[in-house]
């Protein structure tokens, strides 16, 4: 037991050093003395661990240019471009996004693929693995530390399967196990809203309370409460899809109840309402609705006004319950954010006095896909033991 404790301490110290070096690019690396000061570790410990990391290719030692007399100081730099994560975005039906990020959250590769012809999760992951192999061959110097997947659903912590998935192909599927087997890498699976919230937790370090509302194929909410992601006992924390904030006369085929908010806000449901029936090409129909709204088409404007009301009610509940500093809104819904804002904001003002008194900030995330990738990267990095 004692040796295990010693190894745990050593691993903690190694990660502390890597954490300090991770975003120190603007400082052209750090000396071992700098690292010791920032980590509160002894100089001897830092020196020994940096030498080990150098042997393993995790850091590089660079001689500083110096005009002074005496020993030329050296800086320690993290080999951040060498270590990468694989990000799979499966939150939209028929679409696979693959991104590779280095451990500084910089994108090395990003591309979307049409997978509408694939009918099973195993086929999708096998296809993703083949595309990844092509990417890896072109970047043979990279070391991959994990693969993460964004889904529009809940990763049940007890069963390790997906539930309440907007993309029904993945319902009840042990996706994490499938991904780990295919890629032979540590895997991570989470819903897109949680990943976005985790990303912003690192981006806005001073903010300890925020809510991320992601609306695309489904409606997801990620919550950072006092600096930690709110998951709940089973991983269902923040789940709002079937809360009764929608039209009380609209039947939900998923749960058998009426008035579920996801049926008013999810992109497939909005375009079905606009076209009068479910659409096979959801993104195509959505793009047409967005274009019609920009041209102030009467039917499109009316539907967006109604949608804004439902969105405002959901946001007011989230503000009242969580008292966040920020509410971020991301996903395809941001295509009409400007058209939604006036009525949405009015509803929030009317229903939630906290919004006016406490100055909760509503923020549009127009680059939520990048935010998802960053969230995956942060999640994998947190588990990495260099």
UniProtKB/TrEMBL annotation:
Keywords: Carbohydrate metabolism, Xylose metabolism. The keyword Transferase does not apply. Residues 23-60 form the HTH iclR-type domain. GO terms for biological process: D-xylose metabolic process. Belongs to the ROK (NagC/XylR) family. Transcriptional repressor of xylose-utilizing enzymes. This is HTH iclR-type domain-containing protein. It comes from Enterocloster bolteae 90B8.
